[in-house]
Specification:
By secondary structure, the chain is an alpha/beta fold. It folds into two domains: 189 residues, Glycogen Phosphorylase B (Rossmann fold); 132 residues, 3-Layer(aba) Sandwich (Rossmann fold). It is built from 14 helices and 14 strands. Strands 2-1-5-6-7-8 form a six-stranded parallel beta sheet, with helices on both faces. The chain has a six-stranded parallel beta sheet with strand order 11-10-9-12-13-14, with helices on both faces. Helix 4 runs antiparallel to helix 5.
Length: 347
């Protein structure tokens, strides 16, 4: 099957969406599928407001239309709702290619946190955007229920995975600092609620891995915190292995790929009982969920590391990619059936 994936998020960005798409593309190709990725680096770009390090496609429609006509995909999957995703949605409708979409991030909550735009406005746009798709893939049951309650239709689950060849317990020294070691990995930005972790009165040492628009402010306000920048996946696995607790303060993530990466390395999780942690951890003895994040952090210290590793084993990219491909095949088959019925009705 020929699959075209359009995404506004790609290298050099480092985030869960990019890692999810790259892992999926790799395994699709390993399975013999023909996959092309259309991403901003192939077009003229402009800096994203408040995130200048992220480049957005500038008027990509015509060039994208040529790419689609040349590749002639069996299905077009739109991974993001930005300028390139919007152009891909328009192209798919124009040429009649089956369209699938994915909901990776709680974009309305991010936009409200950063710009104050009401949730109803952004959710209205997203409902229209995804309404053109044969299916919209979501990462967890909680997200599916939330979107269904907001009027989204044709939703299906597409889980996530972790590469066990990279993310596994490493025999490395504990990260520097007075133990215990509490670790955050992710974008350093207001929507990640990182201050909720850094202002906690906890024993030991706090480490932050990642970059983002709030990094300099965070460095100034929390001089006792240790920082690392963006790391390779191999180095990141060592960092997870050298920490005692992985702290996930976000209340707006749809899944949180870093959760299962940390677990796979034997690092128990402390988080709020919200979307993402509820689906990944739930009541499993691999992490501690509590509205009192400090209590969750202290409880996670008592969790055996093998509990985390065992829980992470259910998340594989092979299983997640099988789900993804199943829904794309179904979308292509539905369009073929619809075309056959339309042809029959004309005779």
């Amino acid at each position: 099957m020929r699959i075209l994936i359009a995404t506004d998020a790609w290298s050099p960005q480092v985030n869960g969406v990019v890692r999810t798409l790259k892992a999926t593309v790799e395994r699709l190709r390993d399975a013999g599928e023909e996959v092309e990725v259309v991403e901003p680096g192939q077009f003229r770009t402009m800096p994203c407001p408040t995130y200048p390090e992220i480049r957005l496609s500038w008027r990509p429609y015509r060039a994208l239309l040529q790419r689609v006509n040349a590749f002639s995909p069996d299905v077009l999957h739109v991974a993001t709702e930005g300028p390139l995703g919007l152009a891909a949605r328009r192209v798919a409708r124009r040429v009649g290619v089956p369209l699938t979409t994915a909901y990776h991030t709680r974009f309305p909550e991010y936009v409200k946190a950063r710009f104050g735009i009401p949730l109803a406005w952004t959710y209205g746009y997203l409902r229209w955007f995804h309404g053109a798709a044969r299916v919209t893939l979501v990462p967890t049951p909680v997200v599916r229920a939330d979107l269904a309650a907001r009027g989204f239709a044709r939703l299906a689950l597409w889980s996530r995975g972790v590469d066990g060849g990279i993310f596994h317990p490493r025999s490395v020294p504990r990260l520097e600092g007075t133990p215990p070691i509490f670790l955050y990995v992710g974008r350093v930005a207001v929507e990640k609620n990182i201050d909720a972790f850094l202002r906690l009165d906890l024993p030991g040492t706090k480490w932050v891995v990642g970059e983002g628009p709030d990094l300099e402010r965070i460095r100034r306000e929390y001089p006792e915190v240790r920082f690392l920048g963006v790391l390779t996946q191999d180095r990141l696995a060592e960092v997870y292995s050298g920490a005692d607790v992985f702290v996930f303060p976000s209340r707006t993530d749809t899944f949180g790929l870093v959760l299962i990466e940390a677990l796979a390395c034997g690092c128990p999780v402390a988080a709020y009982p919200v979307t993402g942690p509820l689906d990944v951890i739930g009541d499993a003895p691999a992490g501690a969920l509590d509205e009192d994040l400090r209590s969750a952090c202290l409880a996670a210290l008592r969790i055996p590391r093998h509990n985390a590793v065992t829980h992470a084993r259910q998340y594989t990219w092979e299983r997640a990619t099988t789900q993804f491909l199943q829904y794309l095949r179904q979308a292509a088959a539905e369009v073929s059936t619809d075309d056959a019925r339309a042809a029959a009705s004309r005779h």
